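QA checklist item 7 of 12: single-chain prediction sanity check.
[x] sequence parsed
[x] length recorded as 226
[x] structure emitted
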Amino acid sequence: MTDPGKRHTARYLPGQHDLAGDARLFSDVFQRNAPPIIATLSRYLLGQGGAVLEIGAGTGQHAAAFALAFPTLHWQATDPFPEHLASIRAWRRHLLRDDHAPLELDAADDWSSQPDIRTLGPLTAIYAGNVTHIAPWAVTEGILTGAGRCLAPGGRVFLYGPFRRGMEFFGAGNRAFDADLRADNPDWGLRDIDHLDAVARRHGLELEDRHDMPANNHILVFARRQ
């Protein structure tokens, strides 16, 4: 279990979150943020083929919804935690999509060399939602490093969550959230968009767009150069 003195956790655990009795875990924000995320991703992914790798799929609610929203894509969910992987499988069964079993993946590792990732072929896209701020920097860096190796030319990375620009926060709430995260774990915190862009460029990616989302969140779109 997580430290009860901490306000934030990177894990959903039975007993801390609603449980359906079939291993499904529930994220409190899913109903609010899934529709606008799908609407934004549709600008890039609707009608596309190939595989999309979701890193840090958590409860699996978003992964299941995305698989339904983009039926022409192989939406491959991943996560490092066994209780999350069980929930992802349960959500897919619940929505009668018992295919594409989730993969165990820690983005801080050299995940791009895993055989089960390589079998997906060059990736159409990589999606990570609410990951970068509540994981060590090595995870974010690992996402961008692996993207440079695994994305097809013209492929994209979508990072969803709260971000900052330098020390400018998008709202006082995000500034307080950043301070709370760093108090719980000094390796966490809202990531600087300009720093992300600089790291991405080292791996053949560049910031293509930034979309405003509810609750002062954003979707950052990084495209792999041809």
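[x] summary fact logged: The first strand starts at residue 51 and ends at 54.
[ ] second reviewer sign-off
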